[in-house]
Amino acid sequence: MTEKEDHRHEMDSQLPEARTEALEDLLVEKGLIDRARIDSLIERFEHDLGPMIGARLVAKAWLEPEFRDRLVADTDQVLQEENVSGAQIEHVEIKANEPGIHNVVVCTLCSCYPWALLGLPPAWYKSPEYRARVVREPRKVLEEMGLSLEAETEIRVWDSSSETRFLVLPERPAGSEHLEIEELAELVTRDSMIGVARAQTP
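Predicted structure:
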């Protein structure tokens, strides 16, 4: 790739961000939106409405085997009982990691993703490279993202769609037996619920 082509590629990769920024600036300038309100909304999705909701469900599943079984068997019913609602979780299925089985989520067609459980989707989740490669070579993609799995571990890839969103229930980390639900929830990351990482160790 020539220097000119490399520069063009870099510009193309930044184009959606630049367009979004320009559109936001225009709407603010015309008084149609308030920038502080947008920042507040993004912050809320990233920290309050997002990953911590999914993380709390995972932590509760780690603590209560009966709750875990119901969560995996009928996620929609449990979300209703827990008063969890919001964007893109009309139908959710939870796939539990266990010894010898690791689950990972992708959306090959676009970027379907359970916003109300995980917050804003990361940029890499929406990238064409992740969407194409994780289906063909999941082990290699996970290794590149920092997750090395044992050779005998079966990797199951779940393709989200507008009809069904998936969420991974990561394995409980060793050394967390003494922790309460709030402390456990802090170990559960967005990436571990997509399946590209393990839950953090205490």
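Summary: Strands lie at 92-96, 101-106, 154-159, 165-169.
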